[in-house]
Amino acid sequence: MSYFNKQYVVGFILTATIVVLSQHVYSQEQEQSNRSIEEMVAMIDRTVNPAYVYDYEQTKYVPPKGLTLLIMGQTTEAISAYLDQFPDQKKPSGWASYWGVSEFKGFIEPYKYSAGNTQHHQMIVDKFPNTIIQSAMWMLGKWDIAKNAGSGVYDNVIKQFSTWAKSANRPIYLRIGYEFDGPHNELEPDEFVKAYKHIVDLISVEGADNVAFVWHSYASKPYKNYPLSAWYPGDDYVDWVAISVFGHAYNGKDFGSDCDNVLNFAKQHKKPVMIAESSPINGIPKENTEVWDNWFANYFSFIYNKNIKAISFINENWPNMGIEGISEWKDSRLYNNVKVSEAWFKEINNDHYLKQSSKLFGELSFKPLQNAKEFINKAAKLEDKNVVIKKMNLPFYVYRDGENIHFFPSAYMGNHEGISVDLKSKKDVYSGTSSLKLSYNDYHQWYGLGLVTPPDDWGDIEGGYDLSGATQFSFWAKSNENKLSTKIGFGLIKKDKPFPDSVIEHKEINLTTKWKKYTIKLKNKDMTCIRSGLVIFSQANGKPHHIYIDDVVFE
């Protein structure tokens, strides 16, 4: 056979193969599109594994045998869109909302984050009687958030939450430092446990007995491979164990060894299990129902098989959330696909899943407070007392040994991919035990770093510190490169933003390889709102370098 004949035969075979495969794919899509909703729902395995049916101890607000709480979230916008798209469907038994341990925001009044999404706990109370609230408390290891929480820095915030919780007069499932073992949260077990126990103790002392405490694992490869037990605060401090389900459900009904580890831990400690966050992160496309086969059928089968007592589904368009590290997540809103949403409601409308109902609190053995009205008036005044721009005493340290961090290294500028920050460097220290080490790992271009509050904000959210009375700003600095041209100071957010720094002051410096103190005089400067406590700009001159900063203070 000639070369050309061989090529012809090979081409013919390839073409025929492509046609057959295309026909097969088309046939599968046609088969999916022709399926009834009943056939889709029939894919769910409702077998309950008796190994996961056990008696619970030291817990509260657990549904009776054979029932599961249904919760939806996670923003005000997502909740409103869900109700608009499905106005005739039964409402779930609960709704989810989020907040941060460092600030009492998003409770009485709506609070919009810089990405444009809003949190508003009181909206759930006012709009959805006879439902529960799943409240997620953000708490990280970095920036000393967890450490500060454990040492009482945010006690006033926790007390405000406790008063509001009593006024809500319904079960609140509080996820303290949710996904505590996720690498993205950088939580050291000892700091997390201390903070968790301190928060639980304070809420209990404040008398917010309607709060159930949820210990929420990421249920994936843990941070630094710490054992799960290292983060456990003890049976007296945990009412529920929770997991996240995102990519887990794409690989069948078994969600992996890390997830199994959490479930077995919950059984060992006789705690009910909640799926606290879940979403098909590869998206719900309009064109086909593959996501039902590949994610939802596995998800619901897991719920039955593992005897899950509460689930929370996040109906969200992930690309719009502005969350770092999830850029590849897709639009996972139910109403993208009519058949998927119909199958969803066909499943959740069965009696296994609890809905909004006047009987709900009784089913959860919750007794509403008789004196809740006295807390409602107190709660209404809370956010007025929550001063956003706090007046601070002098001297006020921006940085000293990496302790009690007031400003967060989250404002990256220029070639930010070349920047790395160590808040507790032991490499080269002026005084104490640590210094701030800023490393630039590229060979060209400029870069900048700002330590700001609130974190990850560029002037769209109110915040900062009132440092009125300060007469100078000083810091110690050096570099591993001699005569490194830098600009260091404070203030970053300009007047074109809704919430700017009240003053911006930077100093041009040629850093040397020896520690030196630098001072900026502040006479007649408006110090009433400093939200960028330290700002550093520099550039590479053909090789990487390090900058060391220590003892940064307003006085």
TrEMBL record:
InterPro entries: Galactose-bd-like_sf, GH, GH26_dom, Glyco_hydro_26. The active site is at E179, E277. Residues 48-344 form the GH26 domain. The keyword Membrane does not apply. Keywords: Glycosidase, Hydrolase. Gene3D superfamilies: Galactose-binding lectin, Glycosidases. Belongs to the glycosyl hydrolase 26 family. This is GH26 domain-containing protein. The lineage of its organism: Bacteria, Pseudomonadati, Bacteroidota, Flavobacteriia, Flavobacteriales.
